[in-house]
Amino acid sequence: MANQKVNQMGEHLPAGITDLAANETWLEDRAKAGWLPVRINRWGRVLFEKGEPTQTARYRFQILQSDREKEPGQEQMELNQAFGWRYLGTVPHYYHLWCTDDPAAPELDTEPTLQAESYRNMLRRELRSDCVCTLGVNAVIIALMLWELLSDRGWFLLERVRSFMPGCLILFTLLVSCEVVSIWLQYRTLKQDIRRLSAGISLERPAEYRRKKRRIQLVSWGTFALVWVLFLSRNAGAPKPVGVPSEYGTRPPADTVYLDLSALEDVSFDEEDRSYQIRTKINELVPRMWFVRQNAGYPDAGDAVLDTEYYHALTEGLAARLAQELVNEYQWKKQNEQDMIPVEPGMLDGFWWMRAESADGTGEHWQYAVALRGQNVMGLIYRGREDLREHRDLIAQLLESRG
What we know:
Blueprint: H1 2-6, E1 8-12, H2 20-32, E2 35-40, E3 45-50, E4 58-63, H3 74-82, E5 86-91, E6 95-100, H4 112-150, H5 156-163, H6 168-198, H7 210-232, E7 240-242, H8 261-265, E8 274-281, E9 288-297, E10 303-312, H9 316-333, E11 341-342, E12 350-357, E13 365-373, E14 376-383, H10 392-400
Helix pairs in contact: 4-6, 6-7
C-alpha cells in the first residue's frame, strides 16, 4: 500500500476548469516527467501513476454536448479509439479527457468554428453554475444578513460588533471578491478562446499554465485562509480589559466614555468604596466601544451599581440600529415582561427607559435606559437612588462631546 501511494499522486487542473489548452499542456509536461494521467474525477482532480517518461503523449479535452452526458457515446468511443485515442474520464457538465501516444494520431477537433460553438455551450453552463452555486449562495447569505439587520427582532449587529475581531467585515468582503475575481478570470479566458476559434484560428499549444496555476493557488489559499480566520474570530473579538492602576484599584482611562456615578448621584463617593471594570474594543463598523461597570457605596448605607455600554458608530443609521437592538436585548433580559417605553428625548435623538424588579426576589429595582444622539449610543443598567429619566440632558451632553 505504501509503495502504491509513492507511485501515485493526485493534482487538480492548474489553470481552472475552463482553460483547456493550458491544462492539456500541463498534462503533457507531467507525462514527460514520468507522471502519467490515468483518471480524472468530477472535481477536475487528476490521478497520476509513476511510469516511463514519454515525449509524444498528447491530451485533449472534448466538451460535452449536453449536461446529461456522463461518458462518450459508443460511436464517439469507437471513432476516437480507431484514431488512436484512449478515454481517461469525464468531468460532468464540462468535458471528456482523451490521450494518445501516437504522434501521427489526428486531432479530435479539426474545425475551429465548430469547436467555438462547443465552447459557447460550456460558457453558458459555466455561467449558470457559477451564478447559481457561487454568486447565488453569497447573495442568499448577504440577503439573510441584511434581513436580520433591517428587521426589528434580535440584536444581530450587536452580536457581531461585540464578538467578531476587528477587520472581519473587510475579510468577508475580500472573500466574496476573491470568488468573483476567480469567476471573472475563467469567463475572460473562455471569451478569448471563443473569439480565437470563431475567427478560424486553432488554440495555441503548448499553452502557458504556470502563471495561471500560481494565480489560482493564490486565490484558493487566500480564500481558505480568510474562511479560517473568520471561523477562528467568531468569538475571539471580545472587548479587552483596560484601566489605569491606582492605590484604590483600576480606574478608567482619560478617554473612557461612560456615565460617572458621582455625576449621576451628585454624591462624593469614598474612593475606597468604588470599584470599576473597564473593557474596550474597536470595529470597522463601530470605531469605538466602551463597557464600564461601577460599584460605589453610599456614605450612609447601601450601594449603587451602574453598567454603561457606549458605541460610536460609523454612521447615524448604524447608531440607530444599535439603539434599537439594545432595546430588544434589555427587554429580552427581563423575558419581555414589559416594554421599554420611549421618553421625550430632550436634547437626545431618542431615549427609551423601563424599571424592572430584580429576579432574585430581593425586591430591588433596576432601571434600563438606551440613549441615542447622532452616531453615539449609550446603554445603561442602573440600581440606585436616581431616576435616569431626569438626567437625559447630562447623558446628551456626554454623547455630544464624543460626536
